[in-house]
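Lab notebook page, bench 4
Experiment: in silico fold of construct C2
Operator: M.H.
Input chain length: 72 residues
Purpose: comparison with the prior construct
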Amino acid sequence: MKRHGFEPASLVMGLVLLGVAAVFLLDATGDWDPSRRLTVSLAAGGLAFAAVASVVTRLVRRGHRGDGGPTA
């Protein structure tokens, strides 16, 4: 298998989707009756958090490269 770099945004989104799946599983078994608003908020908030993690990762990696980026 080809090696690849660590992507924090993928980790965050995977954990969020596991959380959403757990909510649906608890709803299906009847152990918990969540509102649609909670489920949608969890998914949307997780997507936003993953986007922030992606932007921060990109900024940190660009800062560690040493080049200051394009100069005009």
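Observations: The chain has a mean pLDDT of 86. Helices lie at 8-29, 36-65.
Next step: discuss at group meeting.
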